[in-house]
Structure prediction request, 450 residues.
Amino acid sequence: MTQPMALIVDDEPDICELLEITLMRMGIASHSVFDLNTAHKLLTEQSFDLCLSDMRLPDGNGIDLVRHINNTYPHLPVAMITAHGNMESAIEALKAGAFDFVSKPVDLEMLRKLVQQAVKLGRPNPSSKSSHDISGASEHSLMLGNSPPMVQIRQLIDKLARSQAPVYISGESGTGKELAARLIHKNGPRADHPFVAVNCGAIPQELMESELFGHKKGSFTGANQDHQGLFLSADGGTLFLDEIADLPLHMQVKLLRAIQEKHIRPVGSQKEIPIDVRIISATHKKLSGMVETGDFRQDLFYRINVIELPLPPLRERVEDIPLLAHHFLTRIARDSDIKKSKLSSNALNKLKKYAFPGNIRELENILERSVTLLDGSTIKADDLHLPTNQQSAENSIGSSQPLDDRMEQIERETIVKALEETRWNRTAAAKKLGMSLRSLRYRLDKLGID
Prediction:
């Protein structure tokens, strides 16, 4: 493979020399120019694997070069060199399509990491799978669906994977926000490094700073040893902050500083630690509304919402339900070691008419429970235990009891009844329920039935 080549666009000779020496030591050749016109000319004459451009140039703005490269040479990653502390310009560059940014004075260690990731994008691995490849993959490696919204989502995921810009994933619960975040990570240059997911609403407030940034031994009661925290666990990779709307205001301040400065300070430590982490955040709540009410900091929202990835609810892509149902029924049969169940046409039509407040996750749960309680091999409309519409669901189970809880209760009662009738002989109960012993064990474990 030929030596990678970088284009440097900066009107300061000292900066150009520093970048050239750094790249040369990394085995990367470079060509420096001092203005936009020369850069445009050189781009038409030879190929590059990376471009580093200053923000302010004698004949224009570096962001214009970012837009030009993004439109004309979409596979060429371009990073912006910005003035220290000028986050507005950095975010503008990222929105324009910049791969990443580095601030002056240039931190050489951060620059080297940026260059390594950019070269990976400039020379993609032909063996890596795109999110468009949906043949024979599991639900953890794809976004299933052939509807126009899902085709657009997969295209946007591929584009986001080529950037280091913070991404904000919006959408209702159960639409696959973590799956989308994993795909962005998997298809990008950080794929060889950790993907760390954390539900911000599941961490007690008093432990949140320690969980995110780590702590030193003895920094508080119970801190019996050093703890590195989630940021350091994700170093070099991606940190997925799910339900970021649940972060308390005091932690929003600390998170903003960590993202902007690319440094963290563990609880009880006097030293800051540099971090190299891409941030992807998500929530089912409307963050812009929380900004207006003062429950979420506007500056943090501005920083994490560089690019938004909105995921559509299942009711807006009904044509994807047959494909999703087939996928889940295949997985259920494999995991439970049973023959794959089929959906009758009436059952499929019933699913298409249902509003799915729990989206894809609810579809999966409904099919899983239907298979567990099924007598034969075909799921009929009545086997789905679905209300005819959302209003009847609320009337039948009450506003305080979600549909999922009611379905789980029905499943539990059916299994317990079969066990009681067979005097808790699991083999006999499995036969009575029309499932394998392995499948029954799986359901007992999942439902917590001892």
Observations:
- The chain has a mean pLDDT of 86.
- The two ends are 60 Å apart (CA to CA).
